[in-house]
Every structure is written in structure tokens, then in C-alpha cells.
Specification:
heterodimer, A: mainly alpha, Globin-like, 7 helices, about 80% helix, about 0% strand, flat, B: mainly alpha, 9 helices
Amino acid sequence: MKSVITTVIASADAAGRFPSMSDIEAVKGSFNRSTARMEAAEKLAAGIDKVTADAIDAVYGKGSYDQANKDKCARDIHHYLRLINYCLVTGGTGPLDEWGIAGMREVIRAQVLPTAAYIEAFTHIRDRVCVPRDMSPQAAAEFKSLLDYLINALS
Amino acid sequence: MLDAFSRAVVSADSKGAAIGTSDLVALRKYVADANKRIDATLAITQNVSCIAADAVAGMVCENTGMTQPGGNCYPTRRMAACLRDGEIILRYVSYALLAGDPSILDDRCLNGLKETYLALGVPIANAVRAVEIMKIASVAIMTETNTGRKMFEGINSGSGAQCKEIASEAASYFDRVIKAIS
């Protein structure tokens, strides 16, 4: 699983050297941002069901849709939000890349899924994040950048 | 390869749950103790040759036959291989300590090490003793209970006494090495 620390260690190991000062500085740099990331992860974990429901309401609006269809969409959004929660914890896009984005295009094409709906849902979530009601500015920045990363991958 | 953070992610994913407040307690502690962890890692990396050389010398002193003809550290080529292995083990322990997770040590160093040593005819009991000495030396440097120069005088987290917890984590990685080869 890729994170700042494992990437640094993997390259040190490939060169057969001990962790150097620059390796340690890189690790330290990720620690500096980790407070904000963990805050975002914590807030997201606490509100993940609410955020999902809110996004589903925004996407489906008042129209009458099949409930089973809605439930599946909610499940997927919840899944992606969970992966974003993991990315916030590791400080890299590893979990999204490995468990969310790898193979995503093939699955979406095979199932004929409307990616526009997902994009709308995540855009809605991104634009609804309110500072400081939901989280601190730095935490919101970390959260939003991961939502953008996912939206970009879905586009 | 995992670190403390990705370990939390993998275990949360197996439950299909997001990482919440209770799981973040340990990770916040990891970040809060980052300077101690870095100091402890440096305690190994800055004293590698010394720790490995002392450990091998100690092992030989306790078994003087090793450097005699027919011994496992004779001629110097084989003694050099021994020193090199000591440094390799220290390198992987320093990675594990920095990551806060032993998976890199397990995957890239310990997996198959015992089989290799058995195939090469390395005396396991002596190898274990050398690792034990490396453990004692590393912990002593981290906690500043060593004789001679004190590692943290006036820098970063300040005192070796604060590194006790992290030193015992380092000791657990050495114990892992011992367990894997015995």
C-alpha cells in the first residue's frame, strides 16, 4: 500500500541504503499535514452516511426512481467515500488507486453505469463542505483535493 | 509493504468500515511521537558500523574458535559476510521502526532467511547471539544508557529517557529477527 513512508522506504531499499536525512525530511513533511488529514478523516467517518444520503437526494431530486437503483448508487458513493477516508489517513492516493480506480473504467463500461451521476454526487459533496461548520480549512482542503482527484478519474 | 497508517487502512477495509475516532487514537500518537521515532531511527543509522562490528566481535569473543581455521568466521571473507548481514538486519529494522510496522522486515529480510542460513551452514545460535547484542546496543543508544557519547544531548526530543517506549518497539523488531531465524 503506497503512502509517503512506504514510498520513501521502497526507494531507500532499492538503493540498499539506510533512511537518509532527506528521506526523514520527506516523512516529517507528511506528518506536518497529517493533523488536518486525520481531522478530515474523522469528520468524514462520523458523517459518512449523512453525506451519502445528502448526495443521493441531490442527484435523484424529486423524480421517482427505482429504490433498488438508488440503493446501489448510495452503496457505491459510500464505498468511494470510505476509500477517500483511507486516503486521508495514509496521506496518499494509494487506497483510491488500488481499490477504487484500478479497473474502474472496465467495470463502469461493462455495467453501463452513468458516470455523470457519480460526478454530480461528488461535486455536490465537494461544494457542500462548509468551513468551519464541517471541518477546519486545512482539513477541508485535503478532503476536497481527494474528491477532485476522484472526479477527475471518473470523468 | 505497510506502515502504521496503511496497516490501519487494511484492517478497516477488511471490515468494510471507515476509519473513525477510535482507530485514529493510535495514529495520532504515532504522529505525536514522530520526533522520538526519527531520533530512534537515527540512533541506528548513525551507529550502524559500530553496532554491527560490536555484535560480531562480541559473538566471536564468546566463541573464540570461530576465527580459528575450521571456524565459521574463518577466513576474513566469511567474517565480512557476517558483518554485512548484521548491517542488512539493522537496515531493515530501521525501516520497520520508521514505518512503525514490521511488514517490511518480514517480507524483505526475514522471509526465507532461516532457510538460507541453514543452507549456508551458518550456526544459528551464534547468529541469534549477534542479533541479541545488536538489540542491546541499539536500545542502549536510543535510551542513552550506553557508555560514551550520548546520542540526543541537546537535540530534538532531548532525552533518551523519553525514547524508552520507542526503544522497546525497536527491541520487538530485533526479537522478531531472532524468532524468525531460530
